[in-house]
Design brief:
Layout lengths: L3 E3 L4 E6 L10 H9 L3 E4 L19 H18 L2 E7 L1 H13 L6 E4 L17 H5 L8 E3 L9 H13 L2 E2 L2 E2 L1 E3 H17 L7 E6 L8 H9 L5 E6 L12 H16 L3 H5 L12 H5 L10 H9 L3
Parallel strand pairs: 2-3, 2-4, 4-5, 5-10, 10-11
Antiparallel strand pairs: 1-3, 6-9, 7-8
Helix pairs in contact: 1-8, 2-3, 3-6
Length: 312
Amino acid sequence: MRQIHFAGGEHAVLLLHGLMSSPLEMQYLSKRFQRAGLVTRVPHLVGYGFAQPSERFVPRTWQQWHAQVLDHFDAMKREYRTVSVCGLCIGAVLALNLAAERRAEVSALSLLATTLAFDGWSIPWYRFLAPLAFHTPLRHLYAYREREPFGFKNEAVRKWIAREMAEKANSAAGAASLPMTAVYQAHKLIKHVRRALPRVGAPTLVMHAWEDDVASPKSAEFVVKHIGTRDVRLSLLHDSYHIISMDNEKQKVADETLRFFGERAGVTTATLEQGGMGRYPAVNDVAAVRIGGFARAPDSDAQLAAWRGKGL
């Protein structure tokens, strides 16, 4: 699939899907944002997104991924009053890299399942051997095969994705396997962005699932602790795995992102409510980071509420 584009008003959102995935991964959010009057664009990045059956996958460096993101952002910035950016997985890392470079030009960020390490509970124990393959010819030969639960806690969606991947080379959640060359470039991008975080000054919403099967909440914790902006909000999800743009809490993801972007871009509440916003209240779990226990989940919702109540 090529890019998704929905017309709207004077405020726009650039959405970046995950590594070796497709714009379909962000389709639900794109439609919700468009209903609220926002222009949305989900581009296909060559050498980053899943290649079409008629195309041969050509590896690209992370710098080439970034250059394509810059081109899309700059084009939107010339046309619209404000441009916010929403990224999923490595798409969130690309969004951070964009914000570190374009700084004040980015109206706001929504970082979904930010992946600064592949350390989720479904990642194979032998992942620590990956760097050995990165620096040998093996990286051109090996591909990591996607496996259950495919980033979904929703069982119906998981079964659909499993069937799609068994029948063809891809699904709405991405390719059935990830080339090691692409994973290698993602690791290099992550290393760069970890150092660049203090330069990110855009208002930032960080959303992450406690049970993320690909990237543990440590990635979100690292962003909150090291990002340059003081305007940062953290929302922790309790009924999703990695692909939170399509999983059980996708409506909450859309609601909170719409509200956050609206407050920072000056979009009226009435306009946002046309997009169905309002079911989920704004939540800020930054307090959980301050107690130094964010890398583990609270024992219960009551415990997390107690943490917030103490102002920790």
